[in-house]
UniProtKB/TrEMBL annotation:
GO terms for molecular function: O-acetyltransferase activity. It is a single-pass membrane protein. This is Uncharacterized protein. Residues 121-408 form the Trichome birefringence-like C-terminal domain. Belongs to the PC-esterase family. TBL subfamily. The chain crosses the membrane at residues 15-36. The keyword Transmembrane helix applies. Keywords: Coiled coil, Membrane, Signal-anchor, Transmembrane, Transmembrane helix. Residues 331-358 form a coiled coil. It comes from Capsella rubella. Its main location: membrane. The lineage of its organism: Eukaryota, Viridiplantae, Streptophyta, Embryophyta, Tracheophyta. GO terms for cellular component: Golgi apparatus; membrane.
Amino acid sequence: MELLHSATFPTKQKLLIVVIIATALLTIIPLLYPFLEDPNFLLKQQPPSQNSIIKLQDTVVASHEGCDLFSGEWVPNPEAPYYTNTTCWAIHEHQNCMRFGRPDTDFFKWKWRPYGCEDGLPVFDPIRFLEIVRGKTMAFVGDSVSRNHMQSLICLLSQVEYPVDASVKDDDYFRRWTYETYNFTMAAFWTPHLVKSTEPGKTHPKYTDIFDLYLDEADEIWTADIGDFDYVIISSGHWHYRPSLYYENKSVVGCHYCQLPNITDLTMFYGYRKAFRTALKAVLDSESFKGVMYLRTFAPSHFEGGLWNEGGDCLRKQPYKSDVTQDETTMMLHKIQLEEFQRAEEEAKQKGKRLRLLDTTQAMWLRPDGHPSHYGHMPETNVTLYNDCVHWCLPGPIDNLNDFLLAMLKREEDKGLLAQVRKMLS
């Protein structure tokens, strides 16, 4: 690498070469493999001109603007899965579908193909991911589907390395894992509503199934610590279906399905909107958080033949076709998230905050085949459990959320490189 230190190049030119080489490595490193045995290969290359730098900028920007990762279809991927239930210890029992007798395997042999950019979403590359996050930290903030997502990431990364437990407390809801080779730490924060909440019966002993949700108070369990993280992935959904009393300014303003006298049922959509507005505001107002926040949109359930407590199940063996319409509740929850994100994004731009959208609802809606159903425990187990059409089998469709995540991290990295180029050219 003497080229980068040679006194024959001005300082500005050196910096430009560093940026170009770094950017090229992100996109064309496979092409370099045949030449890596030649230690003088890079020395033989001519330094790039400013015109080539500008063209490279234009190419990357165009690829960002012309490729909607989240609009597409599921296509066969016979090479999957990239781990199994016997090679990954991070799988919780109730998502270990293969262990508990699920007979079919086609449900994890699919990948998402965006329309108009077939190469825009390659399958997850664990080494590439770990190199991007080297020396950084990532938090998964939300409910059990958020934890399901993080477990999927651990399993995908197990192809390279297993993490060590770096938890600050002995609590499965708040685990931290460190990849020592890469000095990368990921953490889970359990906050199913994102806002402050109390469990049924704790404040109203007579109401054994009603949560108290303080819609204008973000949950300090996660907001107090987000300044420690470079990436924060926020998600929430299914717990908002449950009966809840809604508080604002410490006073009851209504409820969702509480069936209490003299209290207006504002519906879950009211509480859902307010919860996300409050959570996003907490990120925007945080003086300590300097990283990137990703809002991962709602991952729908797929109960058929009844509700979750009325015998509903999810027994499909194939993804939906791309033209199958979402149910009305999923559409409304997704719409609320998009509206609140767009609202927060405008303020984020003014404050220099980085908010990004992982808009995965449509992709996950098309996967009714990927839930545990009754394959979350042994058939002979003497327990009363509902069919699980909320969480996702591992391996399974939720692994593809990390394809999206890596693609977004790459884009963020590209933006940083391009910003450096523009600054040096100005």
